[in-house]
């Protein structure tokens, strides 16, 4: 039936095709119209706010690091070293990646993870972003579609090539002069799916639109870019993830944030993100071949139970229903499983129908 629906007409640029997406955009804009400054900057910080996502709790713990204690002397030296690096960067108005900081003294730090943790701790302690510390993370995400902008140094970036994607900027806050006619942004969980869509010329077929991937669990820059696009363009943002607990969690990171970065929730989360697919109910509705379905592992089941206990699902009954369906069926599937229905099913039928007929949650 889906094939018949989409084969009748496929004028992707027509007003009719984007009717429900345009309607969704109006609803999203209306929902934020009444928001005030107070909504976003509250003195009492609660663990979860539906308009912001996961936030740092008002309760706190204190970790003491002493210079005269053998157990913490190395940590103390690492913190001092990183603070001195940050001071020099701020004083000279220059920037460095966390990788640069690590290579400043690999013997002292021991691992990249030590640097990452300390930089995040300093950022949290001072209540400023990592960019304010002049320390940036190396980007791993990719972006493509109807988008042009200027980097802080004046470099013009054009993402409209149909054959290649652009690396997400490592200085998202410095981006300016964003130009786009996109009707929506689609977050793609995995690089493999992103590349398949790129090869299938998805951005042109459903033009105008923007695609972005964080290649799995998103890095900070990919999340900042999604937030930047929402703040600037204020168009619907959809998530395309695997129908498994890991995919759900990645989508929730974009929408609600993560505990580790809760102190930067205001600049990282986009609560308007909608779940486009792959839905557990899609597996039954589309009769995805059983050979493409995988049984849930014990780890999957534990992750699913953990997700269902998170505070934001109280306001997402449809998401909750989908995950409960997965619990009952005890199966999961990757987006690539749709290729077992037809090789071009994802690009030519599944996504166009979802977007045209409002198949998001």
UniProtKB/TrEMBL annotation:
It comes from Oryzias latipes. GO terms for molecular function: ATP binding; DNA binding; DNA topoisomerase type II (double strand cut, ATP-hydrolyzing) activity; metal ion binding. InterPro entries: Meiotic_Spo11 (IPR013048), Spo11/TopoVI_A (IPR002815), Spo11/TopoVI_A_N (IPR013049), Spo11/TopoVI_A_sf (IPR036078), TOPRIM_Topo6A/Spo11 (IPR034136), WH-like_DNA-bd_sf (IPR036388). GO terms for cellular component: chromosome; nucleus. SUPFAM superfamilies: DNA topoisomerase IV, alpha subunit. PROSITE patterns: TOPO_IIB. Its main location: nucleus. The keyword Isomerase applies. One of its GO terms (biological process) is meiotic DNA double-strand break formation. Keywords: DNA-binding, Isomerase, Magnesium, Metal-binding, Nucleus, Topoisomerase. Pfam families: TOP6A-Spo11_Toprim, TP6A_N. Its cofactor is Mg(2+). This is DNA topoisomerase (ATP-hydrolyzing). The active site is at residue 103. Its EC number is 5.6.2.2. It catalyses: ATP-dependent breakage, passage and rejoining of double-stranded DNA. Residues 75-135 form the Spo11/DNA topoisomerase VI subunit A N-terminal domain. Residues 184-355 form the Topoisomerase 6 subunit A/Spo11 TOPRIM domain. It comes from the Eukaryota. Belongs to the TOP6A family. It is found in: Nucleus.
């Amino acid at each position: 039936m889906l094939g018949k629906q989409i084969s009748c007409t496929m004028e992707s640029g027509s007003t009719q095709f984007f009717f429900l997406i345009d309607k969704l955009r109006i609803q999203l804009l209306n929902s934020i119209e009444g928001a005030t400054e107070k909504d976003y900057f509250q003195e009492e910080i609660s663990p979860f706010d539906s308009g912001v996502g996961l936030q740092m709790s008002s309760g706190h713990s204190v970790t003491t690091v002493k210079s005269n204690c053998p157990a913490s002397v190395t940590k103390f030296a690492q913190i001092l070293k990183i603070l001195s690096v940050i001071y020099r960067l701020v004083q000279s108005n220059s920037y460095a990646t966390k990788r640069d900081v690590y290579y400043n003294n690999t013997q002292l730090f021991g691992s990249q993870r030590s640097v990452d943790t300390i930089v995040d701790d300093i950022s949290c302690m001072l209540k400023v972003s990592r960019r304010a510390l002049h320390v940036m993370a190396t980007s791993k995400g990719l972006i493509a579609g109807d988008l042009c902008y200027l980097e802080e140094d004046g470099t013009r970036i054009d993402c409209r090539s149909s054959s290649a994607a652009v690396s997400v900027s490592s200085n998202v806050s410095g981006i300016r002069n964003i130009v786009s006619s996109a009707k929506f942004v689609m977050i793609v969980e995995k690089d493999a799916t992103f590349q398949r869509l790129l090869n299938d010329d998805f951005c042109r077929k459903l033009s105008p639109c923007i695609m972005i991937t964080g290649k799995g669990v998103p890095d900070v820059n990919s999340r900042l870019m999604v937030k930047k696009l929402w703040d600037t363009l204020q168009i619907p943002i959809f998530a395309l993830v695997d129908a498994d607990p890991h995919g759900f969690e990645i989508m929730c990171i974009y929408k609600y944030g993560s505990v580790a970065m809760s102190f930067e929730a205001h600049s990282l989360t986009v609560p308007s993100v909608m779940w486009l697919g792959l839905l557990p109910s899609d597996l039954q509705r589309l009769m995805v071949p059983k050979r493409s379905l995988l049984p849930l592992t014990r780890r999957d089941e534990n992750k699913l139970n953990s997700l269902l206990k998170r505070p934001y699902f109280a306001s997402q009954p449809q998401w909750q229903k989908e995950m409960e369906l997965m619990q009952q069926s005890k199966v999961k599937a990757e987006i690539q499983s749709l290729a077992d229905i037809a090789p071009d099913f994802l690009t030519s039928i599944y996504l166009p129908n979802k977007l045209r007929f409002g198949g998001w949650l």
